[in-house]
């Protein structure tokens, strides 16, 4: 990545009269004096907030589903609230999200008192079966994603433990290292056992069909439609109301003119501090975010792959310096890199096929909420009718009482 410090030694080209050298030297010198101020994007922040509730429910579902027999004592789950980042009691959570779990009484050990247990409801079981079917339907896409992650990496190898940590970001099923690796030996080879020390997933075969980035495919499609060759390039656009200094606009213009470097290209010969390496790193981040389910990934997760993808230690500055391509949200106290072009306002428009799982899950939650709302409506209606009946009886009783008082007075 380009340094923000001294830049006189970044390029070692002996012919200083070379026009290319002059352009690169000017490009390098200009960045050293430029500072990009981070600005809040409320709509992209809201896109993260919109997913907050269902993600919380998904964490609780995973917690129960990962238990032996998919059952857990309510009191044990209550003790895990802090880890689940759940700020309400489990009983309150169950009341707010009906239809996720069934409760029943059982003993933790023989001869102990009965306690409340949770298990997936029939509705949740149906969703979990649908989830498996969606994973199966999209298996070719998942295999392609996993291959691409390995193809962009140095030596085509990535830590298996790190891949497990990012499985939900890219839509991999829980058991992908067991099922996919054994099913596709022509692509993958696992070294070591995940979770038991140093374990790595290696790419066995290079597939040229997977070696094209989203940007390269877009350029090819535009070339086909326009009938002229279109050069691969980034979409650079800030939302209304965002402004940058003139010097930065000029720097961006020059930077955009540099040749695009595919994230699948071998760059072992490039200087880590060169302009070309910055272009390549932006390309890698663009491709990683494009492969992710929500076109956004927490920055700390991306930071785990500095070694595999040759990121510099100061890689986070890329997201603010290239603010027309990325947005770095601070929502929830977590820095999250978002691909701007994938969103229109707060809505994700570049939808991954695996988002069907999320849609089904949200649909299940909404069904439970509608059922709860209907139960509350019926309960309120019954209370209203009881009050009306009681009022009518009181009115009738008062009428009879008045008649009796009148008769007693005239006896």
Q: Can you characterise this structure?
A:
The chain has 3 domains: 44-130, Orthogonal Bundle (Arc Repressor Mutant, subunit A); 138-206, Arc Repressor Mutant, subunit A (Orthogonal Bundle), CATH 1.10.10; 212-348, no CATH class. It contains 17 helices and 11 strands. The chain has helices spanning 19-31, 42-50, 52-65, 74-78, 90-96, 122-137, 139-151, 160-165, 167-170, 176-183, 214-226, 246-257, 275-291, 299-303, 306-309, 317-321, 355-409; strands spanning 72-73, 101-107, 114-120, 157-159, 188-191, 200-203, 296-298, 326-329, 336-339, 343-344, 347-348. A 3-stranded antiparallel sheet has the order 1-3-2. It has a 3-stranded antiparallel sheet with strand order 4-6-5. Helix 6 (122-137) runs antiparallel to helix 17 (355-409). The chain is elongated and about 115 Å long. The N and C termini lie far apart (108 Å). Mean pLDDT is 85; it is low at 1-32.
